[in-house]
Amino acid sequence: MTSELSNPAGPLADVRVVELAGIGPGPFAAMLLADLGADVVRVDRPGGAGLGVAPEHDLTNRNKRSVLVDLKADGGSAAVLDLVARADILVEGYRPGVAERLGVGPDACLARNPRLVYGRMTGWGQQGPLAATAGHDIGYLAVTGALGMTGAADRPPAAPANLLGDYAGGSLYLVTGVLAALHHARTHGEGQVVDAAIVDGAAHLSTMIHALLAAGAWQDRREANLLDGGAPFYGVYETADGRHMAVGALEQRFYDTFATLLELAPADAALRADPAHWPELRAAVAARFRTRSREEWTRVFEGSDACVAPVLSLREAPEHPHLAARGTFTEAAGTVQPAPAPRLSATPGALRRPPALPGAHTAEVARDWDAPALLEP
């Protein structure tokens, strides 16, 4: 695990981003751009809400600089528009209409900078019956069908951590959108608005499942399919010490290796061929896993093509030998955290700055961006 800050340029070194402070998927999207080298200036507001932790621990603000602007005060919007005039991308996550009321909506910003990419991150999107209502990750997943695929068939759908909606269906789609729009702006000189809605992104993530559903290869209920825990060779099993192993032995050759290393009786292993006997196979597999600890089973399957892995906690994950060898996690400014991803061979991302403290870089940004309005009281 590495433990230092570095300063390679990154592929987005010539990109300037204005982020209107918020929480969740918007800041994470801006962090992704910052990790790849963009000069991200976060516009914090006096007394603004955060994650409920000290700002030095808010990793979504790493690699950024922060200025303090009260958008509700006289001159606040003018100061932000000065930054916008010098920026390539703006990221905001307000409810629809809020940025407009603050004087920094798309019309005002594009009037100052016609090449600007204006990225909007919301749950419900800019239009639609629910656009103005509050929401959170679990609700967006609920209406897109994603939540209904999660969990055991005999229990309510399981509430996942907010990675699938907020960050996969939200942040990653916003980043894809703003980078595509930036390419267009630099080619054609035309900026535009990117409407990234978590409901759209979460629905889009299920494209393959919808294809299987249309082809009759997916049942629209939980634990009835190969990839949702319906198959006994694709799921999670408890070990003797109360921990768990994840099994993904879908292909026959991988399953054969799995059955051999698990020491599954040949008669039990053969039950794979008939889904009617899968409950019996599941019971046999579960019984075998309960005979040894997670650590013991990890050693059994290590280095094989059985497609079995230990289920680790967040604190355990950085110590996994493969992740440690790759440097998947790093330590910077005293905090263990995921390293920038993905990895580029010529222009890799890097951790260059610790999380920005609100307003810490106002004078610096005013100088570097030639935006003296930031210094006006």
From TrEMBL:
Molecular function GO terms recorded: catalytic activity
Location of region: Disordered: 334-363
UniProt name for this protein: Alpha-methylacyl-CoA racemase
Source organism per UniProt: Actinacidiphila alni
